[in-house]
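Sample intake sheet
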Amino acid sequence: MWPNVNIIRHKLIGSPRELVDYYEHVVGLGFEGLMLQYPKTHYTAGRSNAIMKVKAWKFMVAEFVDVTPGEGKYAGYAGAMVCMDQDKRKFLVGTGFSDEFRFGKWRDHIGAKCLIQYLNLSEDGVPLNASFIEFS
């Protein structure tokens, strides 16, 4: 009927252990995580306290080497961080840092090690959906 619509089966979780087991099962199947919803609530568009996304972040220490030019409200400032992993592969980190950093403080950190979080690695082995956590 609708080629781009898939029916998703709901599963009632009865305990924290069951939640962990089910989460590990779906991640093992290749999914990013789970969407948890209180049983007696209904879907509403936008953000809601009745539904929560659960994903497993992975962490990596990388070297901060440069920035990309910012766009939109960040035009003229830093956009994303350019980082390099231990195998010298470069990748972008686009979120998690302050406006103060974007507006010029980044220059003080070139060459520093930083902790990032990400969801998965690309086929080339670089982090996808990377977020800055802190300089180490």
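Comment: The first helix runs from residue 16 to 28. The mean pLDDT is 90.
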